[in-house]
C-alpha cells in the first residue's frame, strides 16, 4: 500500500519526482484512511511560495479538518483543480488522480531528505 518510488513526510504527505523539475504532492493512503470521507480541499494558488513544513492548505472530511503541509520549499506550479468538484477522489486514488499540488522546489536536493518508503512504513506501523 506504500509505493516504493515515492518520498514521504512524517505528516503523511507523499512526493513524486526527484526535485529536478516540479514534484507532485499528495496525502498517503494512511492519511486518507484516518480522515475518512473527504468532502472539501483548500489548496494554494498557482505561483504561491511555500516553505517546507508550513501549511499549504486544508482537507476537510466528515470527521475533521486537517492541515496539508509543504514537504519542500518552492513555488506552487500547479494544483489539482478537479478536486474542487470531486474531493472524494483522494479517498479512492490518493497516489493517482487524488494528487494535490505540484511544487517547483527551491532546493532540488530537498526531496532526498524526505522519508523513503521503508522509513515511512516503519513510522506508520509503530
Task: Describe the model.
The protein has 126 residues and is an alpha+beta fold. The protein has one domain: RNA polymerase II/Efflux pump adaptor protein, barrel-sandwich hybrid domain (OB fold (Dihydrolipoamide Acetyltransferase, E2P)), CATH 2.40.50. It is built from 3 helices and 9 strands, in the order E-E-E-H-E-E-E-E-E-H-E-H. The strands form 2 sheets. The chain has a 6-stranded antiparallel beta sheet. It has a 3-stranded antiparallel beta sheet with strand order 4-6-7. Strand 2 and strand 3 form a beta hairpin. The longest helix is centred in the last third of the chain and has 9 residues.
| Succession of helices and strands | EEEHEEEEEHEH
Task: Summarize model confidence as the mean pLDDT.
Answer: 96
Gyration radius, rounded: 13 Å
Shape: globular
Number of domains: 1
Helical amount: 10-25%
Strand content range: 25-35%
- Judged by helices, strands and strand pairing, the structural class is alpha+beta
Strand order of the largest sheet: 1-2-3-9-8-5
CATH architecture descriptor: Beta Barrel
- Main β sheet profile: 6 strands, antiparallel
Q: How widely separated are the two ends?
A: 16 Å
